UniProtKB/TrEMBL annotation, chain A:
A GO molecular-function annotation: (3R)-hydroxyacyl-[acyl-carrier-protein] dehydratase activity
EC number: 4.2.1.59
Matches recorded under PANTHER family: 3-HYDROXYACYL-[ACYL-CARRIER-PROTEIN] DEHYDRATASE
GO cellular component, one term: membrane
Species of origin: Candidatus Aquitaenariimonas noxiae
Location relative to the cell: Cytoplasm
Protein name as annotated: 3-hydroxyacyl-[acyl-carrier-protein] dehydratase
NCBIfam families: PRK00006.1 (NF000582)
Ranges that cross the membrane: 55-77
Domain of life: Bacteria
Length: 145, 85
């Protein structure tokens, strides 16, 4: 199953300029999410990171991975009608393998390692084309708003 | 998997837990409370459970998270699930 930006906004509480998922290519309930963030080069952070030498900050790759993790978690964690949830990052253990430059399609893959009612640990990878640029694990929690 | 000895399991689990809670192994006695004595939080408890599952290829259900309280309990819980493997 695929998700478009409107579907994504139903799941993610983040909004521009801090929404780091543009589309979801694969959405396998409880098993896997493959998402895309298009890096255009017009993003504000490139102005400073670094002047004349734009490189996507690693922390923002983690953010994109974490947002993909929320989409995965939304397929597993039970939801109660009328309740809103906030997700928080508890730990990230990510290794960066290659730099990410503007005009790239950042592909984020997230799979569960352990997800319980209010928290989870996922395995995640980021790719440009088919080359891995970052990988690791992310732990997060969920609270009622 | 009956082959693993309790003392070896205890040693392996102590090392695994020390890494997650970020304390020295010596502080993890059998009865030291992870929360009160060693500063564990709920996310760390989940990480311990997930790390045990991964290391020993076990599947431990969520309700056993409450047993991640001290090393003795973790050893017993892990042994219990070895039996169910």
């Amino acid at each position: 199953m695929k998700l478009n930006i409107e579907d994504i906004k139903q799941i993610l509480p983040q909004r521009e300029p801090f929404l780091f998922i543009d589309e979801v290519l694969e959405f396998e309930e409880g098993k896997k999410v493959v998402a895309i963030k298009n890096i255009t080069g017009k993003e504000d952070f490139f102005k400073g990171h670094f002047p004349g030498n734009p490189i996507m900050p690693g922390v923002l790759i983690i953010e994109a991975m974490a947002q993909a993790a929320i989409i995965l978690a939304s397929t597993i964690l039970p939801k109660e009608e009328g309740k809103k949830y906030i997700y928080y990052l508890a730990k990230s253990n990510i290794r960066f393998l290659k730099p990410v430059f503007p005009k790239a399609k950042l592909k984020l893959v997230v799979e569960p390692l352990k997800i319980i009612s209010g928290a989870g640990i996922v395995k995640t990878e980021a790719y440009i084309e088919d080359e891995i640029v970052a990988r690791g694990e992310i732990s997060f929690g969920r609270k009622e708003e | 998997m009956a082959a693993i000895k309790t003392e070896n399991l205890e040693k392996e689990l102590r090392s695994l837990i020390a890494e997650i809670i970020e304390v020295e192994e010596e502080k993890i006695t059998l009865d030291a409370s992870f929360v009160e004595d060693l500063g564990m939080d709920s996310m760390m408890a989940l990480e311990i459970l997930a790390a045990i599952e991964k290391k020993y290829k076990l599947r431990i259900p969520e309700e056993h998270l409450t047993k991640i309280t001290n090393l003795k309990q973790v050893v017993n819980t892990t042994k219990e699930f070895f039996g169910k493997k």
